[in-house]
Amino acid sequence: MKRLMFVALSIEIGLVLVVIPWSAFWERNYFALLFPPLQPLITNHFVRGAVSGIGLINLTVGLTELVSILTGRAGPRHVAVNPSHAAND
After folding, report:
1. Dihedrals φ, ψ of 5, to 5°?
2. Domain around 63
3. Assign residue 62 a region: left if phi > 0, alpha if psi is -120 to 50, beta otherwise?
4. Which residue, 6, 9, 10, 50, is CA-closest to 26?
5. Three-state secondary structure readout of 3-55
6. What's the total number of domains in the chain?
7. For every one of its 89 residues, what pLDDT tens digit does the chain have, with 9 covering 90 and above?
8. Of the candidates 88, 21, 89, which has an alpha carbon nearest to the alpha carbon of residue 54?
9. Is 14 exposed, middle or buried (0-12, 13-18, 19+ CB in 10 A)?
10. HSE-CB for 33 with a 13 A CA cutoff
């Protein structure tokens, strides 16, 4: 269940970070209006691209984890060894 929540969160954050920097919402940012010298930095295409790149990384992580879940690879498993049973074998 935790892995599915991680997948959902990663994909959701990734989608938001890919889409939002290129929308009108990004230009009407509360912090840019509060601190006007920040406006040129926020509207810079390189900054928008960097934020979208971080979103693509999140999407990749989420989709990779989803594929891992669907193919049944659970990752490393920790096996607890009971010392009394190990001595009898």
Report:
1. -65, -40
2. 2-88
3. alpha
4. 50
5. HHHHHHHHHHHHHHHHHHHHCHHHHCCHHHHHCHHHHHHHCCHHHHHHHHHHH
6. 1
7. 898 999 999 999 999 999 999 998 888 888 888 888 888 888 899 999 999 999 999 999 999 999 998 888 655 666 666 666 655 65
8. 21
9. buried
10. 6
> Among all chains, which residue has been given the structure tokens 């999140």?
58
Residue with tokens 């599915």: 4
Q: How far apart (Å, rounded) are the C-alpha atoms in residues 41 and 21? A: 12
Q: What pLDDT score does 8 carry? A: 94
**Taking the model in full, what pTM does it have?**
0.72
